[in-house]
Structures are given as structure tokens and as C-alpha cells.
Amino acid sequence: MDEVVTTDEVVVGVDGSDGARTALAWGLREAQLRGAAVRPVTVWPEDQPPHAHEGGIGRPSIADFEQDVRSRMSAEAAEVAAATGCQAVPVRPEVRYGQSAQQLVDTAGGGLLVLGSRGRGGLRGAVLGSVSQQCAQHARGPVVVVRDDPTTHGAVLWQGTASRVLVGVDGSAGSVAALRFAAAEARLRGGELHVVHAWTDTVSGYGGAPWARPVTTLREEADTTLRQSLQDAWRNGSPGVQVRAETIEGVEWDVLTEVADAADLLVVGSRGRTGWSSLLLGSVSLRCITYAPCPVAVVRASRAEG
């Protein structure tokens, strides 16, 4: 049986924005399910040292500044925890210095990193911020991106038989790793694991003569890919959770973002079979974290798996 990422902390990037607060709420709930602590992390740019701002009579020391920031982070976390029923979750705020994405990735290590889709530094019209995209590209462990806008619902149920964790598979090592992570998340919630493989007719029309390869054959190949993904994920056991698996015709990101409606979490691999080997984040995962109506986890295959 798969295990959730082995760490006693869920790292959450915070910057005082509404998006970061939404991410913090998600991280607290997740930590409560895991029996873990939350480490909110804020990153201060190295080229804007904290002692450079006005400080009344004399300038406050860096230690005073950090203590003030940690106190405000703790206060915000307490407010969010009270609103989400997560008061028992330990909170360990941290202030770091440097490039935001790099510091967040380094803090999380191989553990779970949770981010809002856009922070204070994001362009007003941008759907996905640069920090969340960079973290999804470079993190060594899973990254969950939580959007905060009227088109998303956050997490619907979290626990219970009606809870649903959706995962997209394509037979790649990344999608198998995503499948294992999704199963563990579904078990935490006591809900359903919904496995989807999207396929398209790539030989008809401009792709080739429609009689060159029957659609029935393509559908059979899609069914085989789905079955093989499930077998690869659990060669020596079972997922330990209720599984619904299906193939759906359509473009991958369109299918996944549509089926993700009312899901607690959508899980995708960082790169699928169609991605160039040099790309750290594939087009499917990027579009999902940008447009999905629920939080999205991006999972990278380990070196042994990839």
C-alpha cells in the first residue's frame, strides 16, 4: 500500500495575500489529516534587507524584525485554524531570505509544498503566478496549487465517502507516481479514487486517413494504457481505497479540468509521455494548475521510477 509523503510537516508559502491565506487553510486541513505540523514560510528578498525600512527611533534589529513577522504569521495561522477547525495542528512559522521559489523548494525538500496560485507579487491579470509555476517545475516533492477566485470551490468535502480525488494517467512514470500519491490522499479522506485516462483520435482528419487506424483500436489502446497504469502502480498489492477508473475521449487538460468539478483534489504528473525530456513541467500539468476548479497536486516521479 502506498504512503503519503513521509514528513511531519506541510510547508505553505505565505506572503499576506488572500491567495496565500487560502493555501494556508488547505495546508492546515491536509496537515490535520496527516497528523502533521504546518510550516508557513515567508521569503524576504535579499536585496531589500529588513533593517532598511523606517523604524522610529533607531532601526529594529533583524532578530526583532523576524520575531515580529513570525508573530503576525502565527496570528494569521491561528485565525485560519479557528475558521477551519484545525486548532490542534502545530504551526512553526519561518522567515527566509533569497529567491522565493528556491527558498520554498529548499524548505519543503521532498515533502509537500502548498501554494496559492498568485501572491502579492503577481500581475493583477495573471491566473498563475511565477512563484507557484517555478515551484511546480523545480520541487523535489509534490506541490499543491490552490486557486483563490470565484470560479473555484477550494476543497468541497475533504472527508467521507462522497469525497473524491481525481488523477490523470497516461502510462508515464510521472502519472504512475501521481496515481500512488492520489490513492494515498483518497485514503486519508476515506473517499473515492477517480482514475481517468484521456485519449484523442490522432490519425483522422489532418493527422491521417480515418481508415488507417479504427477508432475502436484507439479506444482499446486507451483501455490498455489505463489498465497498465493501475497494474504498474500496485504490482504487489492493492490501492486500499474505492477506485473508479475510466477512459474519456478528449484533450487531456480539457477532460481533467472538466471532470475535476466538485473533486477535492486533482493530481497530475509533472510530465507525461508527450512531453520533451528536457521540460520540467508539461503542458497538461501547467494547464491544470492554471484552470482546474479545485486544488491541483503536481507529482514528480522519483529517479528510480523515471
From TrEMBL:
Matches recorded under Pfam families: Usp
UniProt-listed InterPro entries: Rossmann-like_a/b/a_fold (IPR014729), Universal_stress_UspA (IPR006015), UspA (IPR006016)
Top-rank taxon, per record: Bacteria
Location of the UspA domain: 9-147, 164-300
PANTHER family, A to Z: STRESS RESPONSE PROTEIN NHAX, UNIVERSAL STRESS PROTEIN UP12
Similarity annotation: Belongs to the universal stress protein A family.
Listed name of the protein: Nucleotide-binding universal stress protein, UspA family
Organism: Geodermatophilus obscurus
